[in-house]
Amino acid sequence: MTDHEDPAPPPVRHLELKAALLLVLLVALIGGAALYLMYARGVFEQTQRVVLLVDDSEGVRVGMDMTFSGFPIGRVRSVELSPEGNARILIDVPKKDAHWLRTSSMFTLVRGLVGGATLRAYSGVLTDPLLPDGAERKVLVGDTAAELPIVVAAARELIGNLSKLTSSESSLAGSLDNVKTLTEKMNGPQGAMGALLGNEADAKKIADALERVNTLLARVDRMAAKADAQVLGPDGLVAGSRTTVAQLNAVLADTRGTLKKVDAILVEVQAVAGNAREATTDLGALRGEVDATVRKVESLVDEVNRKWPFARETELKLK
Amino acid sequence: MASASSVQGALADGVRAFAHWLQNWWRIAQLGAQLLTLALSPPSYSAAYRQALLRHIVLGTAPSLLSFTVLTTLLSLVVIRIVLVTSVSYGLTQYALEMVVRVLVLELIPLTAALFAALRCTIPRAADVAALRSRGQWREGSAPMLLEVLPRVSAGIVCALLLAAISCGVTLLLAYLAVYGFTTAGFEAYTRTVGHVFSPGVALVFGLKIAAMAVAVALLPLASVLITSARPGELTSAELKGLVRMFFVILLIEGASLVGNYA
User: Which of B51, B54, B176, B191 should we substitute to test contact with A (largest number of A Cβ atoms within 10 Å)?
Assistant: First the structure.
């Protein structure tokens, strides 16, 4: 290669056009990439500012998202310290997504075990007024890592209690020993009775008592058979009762007939009473007529007395 | 006494080698400054220079575009698939896309583009110059620098930048398709993730890294040939030294970018 003359380079057809195309492609790619990155970083978006106040901004980094229902609606622009010593997280929310944030919205900062911290917004009442630009809100913090020591301490205490519980001198071990002794006695010749009563004499007494109870039960059985015959037999209490009930039914039928007769008598008495009431009415009219006649006679006697001059006695007597 | 003199001799050799190493780097820096001065001087843009520049850009870049696009597509698909499957198996799918963008676009693809530009464009151009010098067709002075070296270096830079830009675009597109499929529904979320990754600091480091790698792969192979004397044996050695220098500088740039992004 180095020993022969360098041949003249072959001419390139449409050299300038090809070179221009390559350069335009390069410029377009670099320019497009720059514009796309600026768009991806939200340079062309109109935003409003939300300021979140939190005691500890650990895990919050510039550029991280704030999500609403899992959708990113804002981006952390900067984190700074307030004069009170709190962290101020400045978040840019695009205007097109700002309507999800209301005055009643809640903001949380959750630090998980895996991955970075996450900022979330919750809007319970979407009819509340819109969150104004530059609004400051407190952040509720949920820190899994911070709760770990508490969980570990509780677990350690639990393990300690378990160790005490399972040690050879614990109450549980003593109880288990007693259970073992009990089961051994139950497996012995006296069985559960011996385990319950503790000695052989008492167990024998219980066995005797059971024997006597059996004898008693046999006698009670015989008595029950006799009682059954007396009550339910052909001449028993139940048969007599049945006859008595039949007689009682006949008596009740007679009584029912007697009562019907009494009813008829009462009807007649009622009619007599009605007649007496009418007679009493007629008697009243008669009395009125008598009274009128007497007054007429009286007036007539008075007239006679006036006209009869020799009469001295003015009293009129009815005879 | 003999051992003391041998240690002294070894020390002197080491010092001389270090001085020689420093001298070479200084000469490369001088050459780079000279080329930058020429590139920024309006009188340099003669018709012959423009013709040579356009010719080297077309010959150096155009043949590599298709093959490199295919190569980067395959590489990206494999890495994207590995990252997605791994993240799904570990339940970390929400970080898969960010990881793909970080691993591929930020780290692997610019490095691949720079190495590909070096292999297909700048190292062959340096070999051409070495051949010219070994045949005695090289004249000292600013004319060859203007008509032979500067167009080659500029074409190498354009080639590295263009390959990096194309590969990044292809990788971003493939990552989107691998995660969301052929739909535009995920564009907002995808754009937001890309925006997350390319914070201003990361974007600045990324741009500087690509530019520095382009300059390194374009300048170092040629400069290593030019700072060496024109004897054939030494020129072959200079090409190898140029490769070593180039890889060393790329390693430094990659390390610096990692420090800038993640430290």
Answer: B54
B191, B197 contact by CB (below 8 A): no
* pLDDT value at residue B154: 93
The answer to whether residues B106 and B206 touch, using CB atoms and an 8 Å cutoff, is yes
Give Cα B156 to chain centroid, integer Å. 9
Give the burial class of B78: count Cβ atoms within 10 A of its Cβ; 0-12 exposed, 13-18 middle, 19 or more buried: exposed
Structure tokens at A78: 């900067």
Task: Quote the pTM value.
Answer: 0.65
Q: If you average pLDDT over every residue of chain B, what do you get?
A: 88
User: A18, B203: Cβ pair inside 8 Å?
Assistant: no
> Is B204 part of the contact surface with chain A (CB cutoff 8 Å)?
no
pLDDT, position A314: 57
Q: What ipTM was predicted for this assembly?
A: 0.87
- What is the rounded CA–CA span in Å between residue A139 and residue A143? 12
Alpha-carbon gap, residue A242 to A236, rounded angstroms: 10
A116 contacts: CB under 8 Å, gap ≥ 6:
A59, A61, A64
Angle of the A15-40 helix axis to the B187-197 helix axis, nearest 10: 90
| pLDDT tens digits for range A147-201 | 677 888 899 999 998 888 888 888 888 888 888 888 887 887 777 777 777 777 7
- Residues A64/A119, Cβ–Cβ less than 8 Å: yes
The pLDDT of residue B237 is 77
For position A1, what pLDDT does the model report? 39
Q: For residue A76, list its beta bridge partners.
A: A91
Cβ–Cβ < 8 Å for A106, A122: yes
Let me know: does A56 contact A92? Beta carbons within 8 Å: no
Q: Which residues pair with A48 in a beta bridge?
A: A93
Q: The tokens 């070894």 sit on which residue?
A: B10
pLDDT digits (tens, 9 = 90+) for B20-61: 889 989 999 999 998 899 888 888 788 888 888 899 999 988
Distance, in angstroms, between B207 CA and closest chain A CA?
Answer: 10
- From the list B88, B68, B242, B263, the residue with the least C-alpha distance to B153 is B242
Nearest-CA distance A17 → chain B (Å):
9
